[in-house]
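Hi everyone, sorry if this is the wrong subforum. Our group has a chain we'd like a structural model of before ordering constructs, and none of us has done structure prediction before. Sequence below.
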Amino acid sequence: MSYFLRKSSYLGLLLAVFFLVFSSTNASAENPHGVDDKHGPEWSYTGVSGPDRWGELSPLYADCGLGMDQSPIDIPNIDFALLPDIKIKYFTSRALKIKNMGHTVRVDYKDHGTLELDGTKFYASEYHFHTPSEHFIAGKQYPMEIHVVNRDDSGRVAVVSILVNMGEKNPNLENIIEFLPMRVGSDLVRGVKAGANMFLPDFRGYYTYMGSFTTPPCKENVKWIILKQPIEMSKGQIDAFSELMRKNNRPLQPLNERKVSASID
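Answer:
Right subforum, don't worry. Here is the predicted structure as tokens:
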């Protein structure tokens, strides 16, 4: 009898180990960056959990304090270069989720679309908003910035940044403003048009550099593409976001030894 008990215990241990390995592998597949920031400590844009302290809040957030390739940055006055054209084919989707993340408003949609750059195809997954802008252009900050997050098949990330000036009312933003979820953690799903293609400017000239995510865990090796031509939104539209999200821009980070390039067009 003891033999069978020992054998049963041994099999149980093997199953437990297999479950742990499978769970870890599955989690890594769901999160290619290796960190689930939902399980990390709370962070904010002010006070003791603000940007200056992110790197001290958890070992998971170490890159926020120690990373040398952090974002955002002030794009300097730089010489133009012959850069590859970017091919953006974002689609308009009617299956939309607008979620109040607490730190931002995020829009998820099914028909993501693609970004092609230098022979690599990335797939758009979501976009979100920052007020005011996180990136500066030659010392100028903008009232808002939209980040469209794209990933390739290997998990590499490219973020398209769309800067926003205050000006004419943007009709493409009205669907999102109408269904903004006011409570943190809540989301609304509506059959409305809200693909990232509706926010793209006509001119596709861009700046590019290697940086990081601008929120914890601040993981690096992110390809940034900042479109040169800003779009316009009205003061009322920008205020609708800023009143909900408050000030949610990370301060500028040192450029260090990184190279920033700008397309000729």
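For your construct planning: The radius of gyration is 21 Å. The CA atoms of residues 100 and 185 lie 5 Å apart.
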